[in-house]
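lol forgot to send this yesterday, sorry. struct tokens for the thing we talked abt
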């Protein structure tokens, strides 16, 4: 095992890697319940989507661990699943069957894989200036913190100011506080596995305060109804789903999702890789092609299983913060996802959401000026503290950005604020890329811009005006 994973070379050991894998899983476990909840709004069978989410994540985590020996975990991407549900398929089963939506993901994954095999995806990563790479990591850190603050109930939506202080009389907020301060105490005492122990303390607090409860069952049978979705024939149609994506609107969605997938992964690998010490001084990540290949295959598997696009997760930073440095971290996470496919009720106790309101209650919670979409609303207080601490740990590289240099600092600034404020890694990266190119042009330094940066900036520009293009073509 030492020869395969190279524990000593990377300054880790078996115990650390196992704890890191568990911590990563704990911060990601919510996806087993959230993803099918989102996809089911568009007609995807809930039980099938739950099985696909767990087993898809398990398979790709194992592939990442064994093939690349890096501590990156993968699962169905938040944000991308909402795009598939509400933009590709359409809410409440519109004219696009859910199998066709999964076919869009399947084809997007194939295109991304071809870009990796031709070296274009790696070339784009190498063309990005180092300060923008640092900004991506910091922006993702703020993004993770924002997610943690939101899931923990520390902040809430508000009219005019957009966000406001959460309701600290709610028990789930106290669970979040207990988890956060438990992690900080364990860190101060230098106790190994501080994040994992903090999550366990939060679980006990959640049980005591009634925010979660002991499961009534232990096991649940897996459901494979969504598997091979692109090759299923949707009800009311005469051809397989894969052959139904060749319309202008759906092909535009393939492009838009591909761009998001492309840069979400890039940002995650750079940010988490730098935290783990994998990124070299020139900003390159050794073995990047293998990482990107697995991530591309994951998108294909996500579409094939009916789990939406599977991608490298920013929550991998939780395992890295615990000291995870090898593929064993990802393997442990993958094995736990495989277990989750059969023991979902137990996993729900920790990673499942806590319902704070239904549609009517949430509309009142938001206040005037907001319209609540249908459904129940969840928070995830048990793992919220872990996400906040991980976001803090990813902020360290902000000091290395040359803030007195406008040409480098302003694009970095837009990237840092753009990622959390748009709730989208790719959009924040797009802000940074476009502003970097424009500022260089304004300073008569267009020749310093790598040709691929020009290409990507234009691609992001197209993405930002994509709704207008879709309206034009109908």
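and heres what i got for the seq, position by position
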């Amino acid at each position: 095992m030492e020869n395969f994973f190279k524990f000593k070379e990377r300054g880790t050991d078996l115990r650390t890697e196992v704890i890191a894998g568990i911590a990563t899983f704990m911060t990601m476990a919510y996806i087993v319940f959230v993803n099918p909840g989102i996809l089911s709004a568009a007609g995807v069978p809930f039980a099938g989507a739950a099985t696909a989410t767990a087993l898809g994540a398990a398979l790709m985590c194992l592939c990442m661990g064994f093939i690349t020996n890096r501590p990156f975990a993968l699962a169905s991407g938040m944000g991308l699943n909402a795009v598939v549900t509400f933009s590709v398929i359409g809410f409440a089963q519109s004219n696009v069957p859910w199998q066709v939506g999964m076919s869009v993901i399947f084809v997007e994954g194939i295109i991304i894989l071809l870009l990796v095999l031709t070296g274009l995806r790696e070339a784009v990563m190498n063309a990005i200036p180092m300060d923008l790479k640092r900004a991506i990591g910091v922006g993702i850190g703020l993004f993770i913190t924002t997610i943690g603050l939101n899931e923990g109930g520390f902040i809430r939506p508000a009219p005019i100011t957009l966000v406001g202080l959460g309701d600290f009389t709610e028990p789930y907020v106290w669970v979040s506080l207990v988890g956060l301060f438990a992690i900080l105490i364990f860190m101060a005492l230098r106790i190994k596995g501080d994040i994992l122990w903090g999550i366990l303390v939060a679980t006990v607090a959640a049980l005591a305060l009634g925010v979660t409860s002991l499961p009534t069952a232990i096991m649940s049978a897996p459901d494979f109804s969504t598997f091979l979705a692109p090759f299923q024939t949707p009800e009311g149609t005469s051809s397989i789903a894969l052959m139904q994506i060749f319309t202008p609107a759906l092909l535009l969605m393939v492009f838009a999702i591909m761009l998001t997938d492309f840069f979400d992964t890039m940002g995650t690998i750079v940010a988490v890789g730098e935290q783990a010490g994998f990124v070299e001084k020139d900003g390159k990540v050794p073995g990047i092609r293998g990482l990107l290949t697995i991530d591309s295959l994951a998108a294909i598997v996500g579409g094939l299983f009916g789990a939406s696009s599977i991608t490298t997760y920013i929550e991998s930073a939780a395992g890295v913060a615990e000291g995870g440095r090898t593929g064993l971290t990802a393997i442990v996470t993958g094995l736990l996802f495989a277990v989750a496919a059969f023991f979902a009720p137990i996993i729900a106790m920790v990673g499942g959401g806590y319902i704070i309101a239904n549609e009517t209650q949430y509309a009142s919670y938001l206040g005037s000026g907001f319209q609540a979409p249908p459904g129940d609303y969840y928070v995830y207080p048990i793992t919220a503290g872990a996400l906040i601490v991980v976001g803090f740990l990813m902020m360290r590289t902000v000091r290395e950005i040359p803030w007195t240099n406008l040409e480098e600092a302003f694009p970095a600034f837009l990237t840092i604020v753009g990622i959390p404020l748009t709730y989208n890694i790719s959009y924040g990266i797009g802000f940074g890329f476009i502003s970097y190119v424009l500022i260089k042009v304004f300073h008569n330094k267009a020749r310093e811009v790598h040709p691929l940066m020009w290409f990507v900036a234009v691609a992001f520009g197209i993405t930002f005006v994509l709704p207008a293009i879709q309206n034009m073509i109908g």
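Strands lie at 74-76, 155-158, 162-165, 310-312, 354-357, 377-379. anyway ping me if u want another try
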